[in-house]
């Protein structure tokens, strides 16, 4: 599903060159739930961003769903993200000025899906995370766990092949974290969605199919 | 401290450049408007050289001028009849250069390589009394002047000072539209009103002649003459000229109209300028407020490192003042071109005052806008601020 | 999509009250002033009755008469050539201006020399205002009389409230008939209708009213009494005088043909003979377009096109400066307001929004804001117009609201909205997703 070869990422400022990722090779199979672990600043978020086409590699190639995306322009990457990828962030990133339903609808809006279908699919996605009754609420009225469940609904509403989660439980207490983790595991099993998750919680990582460890931008396991 | 702040400003030059541009523009607008206002108000103190209360201007039907010989008689009779009215103190005839008449005649003459120029007023021997001119030296025209060897003229002080500085010109002969003898010198005579710049004006005695100008009369009345008196005067005019066709306007009304032409744009400009200032002030306030909220982390860090509350507000106020100073500095560079290159010829003091005024207003606005947001910033607790990042 | 954006925009505005209030203040006030300016320009320079054909007209309001005399200038040039001083004298024969007279025309002169211009659809000669007084029941009424020919009423489309203009038979017969404006009718009779057939008296003679027109805003055409030129004293004026009180106007059949008429007039000027008893020997006839005629009020020039360009240019520059400052202010505010939502931009981009989507959204939001400001501004402009009309700040100019004015205002609002939204939206859309998402938000 995702194939990464000889990937490096270097940040340059006028004076300093920082290597965030160094020669990473990684293959994620379809339907796999992969977690990436490592200490702060090891480059795990950068790796996830590159997989999500949010950032570009300095060297190496990334292939997603059999397509090489290195020569895509910004328009095609946006389209690709919209159709193939779903994102979950540590700090939820819900839009405070939109209600829950409108937040979930967002990917469909950019996919130019009709109003009726948008509405129906968003409700479905919210139902699957158990928040259909809150769809008229605004993000500020929800708890952290609920917010993250809305974020999951938003990630899955476009039926993407891959979900990329950046520390989805990082801002939650363990009970809420487990709840979110349960949803992700169920998604992986039932819908056969490929999930790549960055975390530094070993117990969460333990629940996934495979674990990759990074240290100082290098893959160590 | 300043170097440290300059570094911060430079780091964020992207967003600061628009802010600087805005302050610069406000400065320039303020500079423009304040120099215009200062220029006009600077002239308010100087006397115009004539009086306007209880004086009426009378315009005559230009058909009656056709026969100049007959017209001379008509004017003579008209003046006599008017003066015989109990409310009329005096009356005078003139054909150009009367107060607020609108038409101007400028003469410029080159004698021996020196160019002398002046506005010309052509008025009769009663004009000084009727208009309330202030004669500084010598005398006004009199009846005898018509038979005099040299055509007499009266000049205003400005003319003498400009063309013959430091000389006693009374009774001198000069070459100006023919050889003329200066019989008197009057104060400034700004017949366009208070907002007119002082300039050279000379008076030539009036004599009925064929020409493009239509003579009119200036009548000095006793104080508090009612408007209805117009009809009485009208009857006199009608019987003396044989024409119903005449116009009559109180000089005071003409003065107000003339001054309104400057007051209205001045007030309009000032109010638009005030609006722009309020607008910019509110905008600055919004931007500062946002920026300070955005930099809670930095503030927390500074607090944690031991900065006092006052240091924090001082830092923010200084930072924005510094930004303003940069903009004003550029603004002054542009503004200084006016007195330096004499693009518009005004008293240098006016430009300088305008620059000073604009600088203070802009700095005032900036500090006013910065006080509230920076005091909010100072209230941020170090722990909370650090947590935010 | 549209509905979503609208909902979002309104919610965003409601949530950030301070920003919204500050922005609205600036927008509404700026737009109100601009609307006021538009309304003044529309009443002064718009193609409205009686000047509906203003774009096809050439006005000839002055004759410049000059007394030119040959003048010889000797120029002595010295130069050092091979150690020997050489002198070179040149004589330039030029012309020296000994006197200039600028005035409007004598009617007879116009009829003799300027009624036969090629390519003209129509022309009219009319006088400047003549002031006369009339006393009605102890109060003075000022008559401002304009003498016109019959064609005047064809070229200028006055809308007659009642009656009709004078025709050629009446003109030829020198009948004492007049067209008055409604203001005078009100002053004189206390009513603006049913005054046809009544008489007004001035200059010791009664004049029969045959038509009533509304008071016009156009300075060049304003009068409260219009009377046939043939009834003037001494019509049509002295034989050998060129200067008088008349102006000529020519109507071209298209905007383009105007230039030809102007050229014709310039050419005609060279054919004018010197008048008897005068040493004027050079004449200039400068036809002006209506805009040039307007600009001429503020700045006299022998090249009216140049003067018009200067006046309108200076005005445009002033207006630009006035608009630039609030726009810049709004841009600054918008940048802050949008940066505040960088997380939102990040999320939208992550889920597939294009840059154009982001720009579109923010420009749209800004347009919504501007429209709200525009509505407030419009109401404010109405108030200002009312005050201006009441206090007669612009002389007799009465500002009116019409459909054209309304459309101009809408265009103004949209323009302002796009202008002040585009730059910040463009800047914000460039934000890199990863950086945008780093700004932690809930």
Question: What's the SSE blueprint?
Answer:
The complex is a heterotrimer of chains A (221), B (389) and C (442).
Chain A lengths: L1 E11 L4 E12 L4 E5 L6 H8 L7 E6 L2 E2 L5 H11 E4 L11 H11 L4 H14 L15 H13 L5 E5 L7 H17 L3 E5 L3 H5 L3 E6 L2 E2 L2
Helix pairs in contact in A: 3-4, 3-5, 4-5, 5-6
Chain B lengths: L1 H10 L1 H30 L12 E6 L7 H17 L3 E9 L9 E6 L2 E10 L3 H5 L3 E4 L12 E6 H7 L9 E3 L3 E8 L14 E5 L10 E6 L7 H13 L4 E5 H44 L1 H9 L4 H33 L6 H31 L3 H7 L1
Parallel strand pairs in B: 4-9, 6-8
Antiparallel strand pairs in B: 1-10, 1-11, 2-4, 2-10, 3-4, 5-8, 6-9, 7-8
Chain C lengths: L1 H14 L1 H29 L11 E4 L2 E19 L2 E22 L1 H7 L8 E6 L2 E7 L2 E10 L3 H4 L6 E2 L4 H5 L4 E5 H8 L9 E4 L2 E9 L11 E4 L14 E2 L1 E6 L5 H15 L10 E4 L4 H7 L7 H36 L2 H9 L4 H37 L11 H27 L3 H6 L4
Parallel strand pairs in C: 6-11, 8-10
Antiparallel strand pairs in C: 1-13, 2-3, 2-14, 3-12, 4-13, 5-6, 7-10, 8-11, 9-10
Word description of this protein:
- The complex is a heterotrimer of chains A (221), B (389) and C (442).
- Chain A is globular and about 50 Å long.
- Chain A has seven helices and ten strands.
- In chain A, helix 3 crosses helix 4, helix 3 runs parallel beside helix 5 (144-156) and helix 4 crosses helix 5 (144-156).
- A six-stranded mixed sheet of chain A has the order 6-7-8-3-9-10.
- By secondary structure, chain A is of the alpha/beta class.
- Helix content of chain A is 36%, strand content 26%.
- The mean pLDDT of chain A is 89.
- The model of chain B has no long low-confidence stretch (mean pLDDT 85).
- Chain B is built from eleven helices and eleven strands.
- Chain B has helices spanning 2-11, 13-42, 68-84, 127-131, 157-163, 229-241, 251-294, 296-304, 309-341, 348-378, 382-388, and strands spanning 55-60, 88-96, 106-111, 114-123, 135-138, 151-156, 173-175, 179-186, 201-205, 216-221, 246-250.
- Chain B has 389 residues and is of the alpha+beta class.
- Chain C has 442 residues and is α+β, with helices and mostly antiparallel strands.
- Chain C folds into two domains: 2-48 and 316-438, no CATH class; 62-68 and 94-287, no CATH class.
- Chain C has 13 helices and 14 strands.
- Chain C has helices at 2-15, 17-45, 107-113, 152-155, 168-172, 182-189, 257-271, 290-296, 304-339, 342-350, 355-391, 403-429, 433-438, and strands at residues 57-60, 63-81, 84-105, 122-127, 130-136, 139-148, 162-163, 177-181, 199-202, 205-213, 225-228, 243-244, 246-251, 282-285.
- In chain C, the strands form three sheets. In chain C, strands 5, 6, 7, 8, 9, 10 and 11 form a seven-stranded mixed sheet that branches.
- The radius of gyration of chain C is 31 Å and the shape is flat.
- Classes of the chains: A alpha/beta (221), B alpha+beta (389), C alpha+beta (442).
- The interface between A and C is medium-sized, with 33 and 26 residues.
């Amino acid at each position: 599903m995702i194939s990464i070869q000889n990937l490096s990422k270097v940040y340059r400022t006028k004076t300093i060159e920082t290597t965030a990722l160094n020669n990473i090779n990684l293959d994620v199979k379809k339907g796999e739930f992969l977690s990436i672990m490592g200490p702060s600043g090891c480059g795990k978020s950068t790796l996830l961003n590159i997989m999500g086409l949010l950032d570009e590699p300095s060297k190496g190639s990334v292939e997603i769903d059999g397509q090489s995306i290195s020569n895509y322009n910004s328009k095609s990457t946006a389209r690709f993200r919209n159709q193939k990828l779903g994102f979950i962030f540590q700090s939820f990133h819900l839009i405070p000025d939109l209600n829950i339903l409108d937040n979930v609808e967002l990917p469909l809006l950019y996919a130019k899906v009709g109003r009726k279908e948008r509405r129906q699919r968003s409700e479905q996605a919210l139902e699957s995370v158990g928040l259909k009754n809150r769809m008229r609420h605004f993000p500020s009225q929800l708890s952290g766990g609920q917010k993250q469940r809305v974020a999951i609904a938003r990630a899955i509403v476009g039926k993407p092949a891959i979900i990329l989660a950046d520390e989805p439980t990082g801002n939650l207490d363990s009970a809420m974290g487990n709840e979110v983790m349960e949803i992700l595991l169920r998604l992986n099993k039932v819908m056969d969605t490929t999930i790549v998750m960055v975390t530094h919680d070993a117990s969460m990582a333990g629940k996934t199919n495979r674990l990759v460890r990074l240290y100082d931008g290098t893959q160590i396991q | 401290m300043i170097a440290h702040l300059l570094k911060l400003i430079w780091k964020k030059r992207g967003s600061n450049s628009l802010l600087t541009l805005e302050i610069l523009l406000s400065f320039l607008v303020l500079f423009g408007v304040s120099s215009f206002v200062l220029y006009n108000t600077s002239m308010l103190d100087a006397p115009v050289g004539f009086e306007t209360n209880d004086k009426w201007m009378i315009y005559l039907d230009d058909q009656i001028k056709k026969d100049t010989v007959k017209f001379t008689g008509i004017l003579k009779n008209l003046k006599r009849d008017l003066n015989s009215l109990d409310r009329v103190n005096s009356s005078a005839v003139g054909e150009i250069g009367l107060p607020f008449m609108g038409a101007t005649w400028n003469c410029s003459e080159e004698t021996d390589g020196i160019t002398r120029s002046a506005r010309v007023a052509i008025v009769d021997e009663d004009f000084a009394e009727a208009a309330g001119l202030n004669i500084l030296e010598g005398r006004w025209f009199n009846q005898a002047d018509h038979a005099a060897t040299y055509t007499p003229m009266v000049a205003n002080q400005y003319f003498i000072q400009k063309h013959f500085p430091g000389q006693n010109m009374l009774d001198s002969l000069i070459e100006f539209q023919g050889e003329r003898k200066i019989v008197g010198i009057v104060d400034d005579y700004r017949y366009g009103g208070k907002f007119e710049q002082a300039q050279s004006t000379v008076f030539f005695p009036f004599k009925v002649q064929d020409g493009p100008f239509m003579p009119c009369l200036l009548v000095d009345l006793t104080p508090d003459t009612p408007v209805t008196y117009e009809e009485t005067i009208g009857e006199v005019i009608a019987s003396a000229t044989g024409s119903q066709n005449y116009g009559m306007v109180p000089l005071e009304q003409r003065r107000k109209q003339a001054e309104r032409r400057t007051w209205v744009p001045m007030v309009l400009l000032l109010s638009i300028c005030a609006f722009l200032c309020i607008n910019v002030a509110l905008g600055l306030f919004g931007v500062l407020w946002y920026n300070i909220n955005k930099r809670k982390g930095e503030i927390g860090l500074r607090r944690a490192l031991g900065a006092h509350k006052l240091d924090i507000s001082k830092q923010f106020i200084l930072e924005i003042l510094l930004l303003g100073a940069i903009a004003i500095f550029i603004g002054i560079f542009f503004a200084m071109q006016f007195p330096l290159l004499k693009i518009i010829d005004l008293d240098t003091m006016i430009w300088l005052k305008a620059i000073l005024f604009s600088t203070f207003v802009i700095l005032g606005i900036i500090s006013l806008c910065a006080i509230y947001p920076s005091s909010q910033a100072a209230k941020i607790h170090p722990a909370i601020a650090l947590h935010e990042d | 999509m549209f509905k979503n954006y609208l909902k979002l925009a309104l919610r965003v505005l409601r949530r950030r009250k301070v920003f919204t209030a500050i922005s609205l203040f600036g927008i509404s006030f700026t737009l109100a002033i601009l609307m006021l300016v538009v309304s003044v320009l529309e009443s002064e320079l718009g193609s409205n009755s009686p000047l509906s054909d203003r774009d096809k007209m050439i006005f000839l309001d002055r004759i410049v008469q000059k007394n030119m005399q040959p003048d010889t200038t000797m120029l002595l040039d010295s130069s050092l050539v091979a150690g020997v001083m050489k002198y070179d004298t040149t004589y330039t024969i030029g012309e020296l201006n000994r006197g200039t007279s600028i005035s409007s025309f004598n009617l007879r002169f116009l009829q003799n020399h300027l009624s036969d211009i090629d390519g003209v659809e129509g022309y009219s000669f009319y006088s400047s205002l003549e002031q006369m007084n009339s006393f009605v029941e102890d109060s003075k009424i000022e008559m401002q009389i304009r003498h016109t020919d019959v064609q005047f009423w064809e070229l200028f489309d006055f809308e007659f409230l009642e009656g009709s203009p004078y025709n050629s038979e009446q003109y030829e017969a020198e009948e004492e008939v007049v067209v008055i404006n409604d203001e005078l009718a009100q002053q004189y009779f206390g009513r603006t209708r049913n005054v046809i057939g009544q008489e007004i008296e001035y200059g010791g003679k009664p004049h029969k009213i045959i038509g009533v027109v509304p008071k016009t805003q156009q300075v060049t055409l304003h009068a409260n009494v219009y009377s046939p030129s043939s009834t003037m004293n001494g019509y049509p004026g002295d034989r050998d005088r060129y200067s008088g009180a008349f102006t000529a106007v020519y109507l071209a059949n298209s905007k383009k043909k105007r230039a030809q008429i102007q050229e014709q007039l310039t050419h005609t000027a060279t054919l004018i003979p010197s008048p008897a008893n005068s040493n004027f020997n050079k004449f200039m006839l400068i036809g002006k377009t209506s805009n040039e005629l307007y600009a001429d009020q503020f700045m006299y020039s022998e090249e009216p096109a140049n003067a018009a360009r200067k006046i309108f240019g200076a005005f445009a520059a002033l207006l630009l400066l006035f608009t630039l400052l609030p726009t810049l202010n709004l841009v600054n505010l918008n940048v802050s307001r949008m940066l505040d939502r960088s997380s939102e931009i990040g999320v939208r981009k992550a889920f597939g929004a294009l840059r154009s989507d982001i720009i579109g959204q923010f420009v749209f939001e800004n347009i919504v804001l501007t429209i709200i400001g525009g509505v407030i501004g419009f109401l404010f402009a109405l108030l200002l117009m009312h005050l201006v009309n009441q206090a007669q700040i612009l002389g007799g100019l009465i500002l009116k609201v019409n459909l054209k004015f309304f459309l101009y205002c809408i265009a103004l609002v949209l323009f302002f909205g796009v202008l002040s939204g585009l730059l910040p939206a463009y800047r914000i859309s460039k934000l890199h997703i990863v950086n945008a998402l780093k700004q932690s938000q809930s």
